[in-house]
Amino acid sequence: MWALLIRDLRLATRSGGGFGLALAFFLIVCTLVPFGVGPEGGQLSRIAPGILWVGALLSCLLSLDRIFALDFEDGSLDLLATAPLPLEGAVAVKALAHWLVTGLPLALSAPVFALLLHLPGPGYPWLVASLVLGTPALSMLGAFGAAVTVGLRRGGLLMSLLVLPLYVPTLIFGAEAVRRGAAGADPVTPLVFLAAVTLSTLALTPFAAAAALRVNLR
């Protein structure tokens, strides 16, 4: 499992689909929003939680189609399907690699981008906490979408249409936690729901993604 994780991390950083692309897109979103809605700080601070979470969600979406595509193209996916490591474990490792190069850097850099949107000071720790809790679910659900569409030509659009509705609960609870934290209210309840969504996703999605891969590899 460690060898597969290290291999995927190396491929992600070498093939141009790593954290640099996600961070650049996140920065572009946070930079363009003030131009679209105006520079007034009060208005930006009200919409900042939602915009930050939408930006992080879309940034994670950029490289999802590469989770299994490279392995499918060079035949490595067939080897993984017959390896001693269960295919469910391989799916989980690949989702972890995606999170390490996209979700985790986005969570750690989000406070810097939040400055552009005038997020109130009390919301910064909750922004990081919600992204750390929620982005693993984004990567795992993305792995499921990538497994369903692997091998399809131009499957990226289909994968986006499949995955985006599944992202809605994570987006709702994540943005609500940041909004409550920024307003000085108690953000624990949405964080608990966010953690529940993530844990449920981590428990169930590897089996669904592995089943989809087995169907596509027949």
UniProtKB/TrEMBL annotation:
The chain crosses the membrane at residues 12-35, 47-64, 96-118, 124-150, 157-178, 190-213. Coiled coil: none annotated. It is a multi-pass membrane protein. Keywords: Cell inner membrane, Cell membrane, Cytochrome c-type biogenesis, Membrane, Transmembrane, Transmembrane helix, Transport. GO terms for molecular function: heme transmembrane transporter activity. One of its GO terms (cellular component) is plasma membrane. InterPro entries: Cyt_c_biogenesis_CcmB, Cyt_c_CcmB_bac. Belongs to the CcmB/CycW/HelB family. Required for the export of heme to the periplasm for the biogenesis of c-type cytochromes. This is Heme exporter protein B. It comes from Paracoccus thiocyanatus.
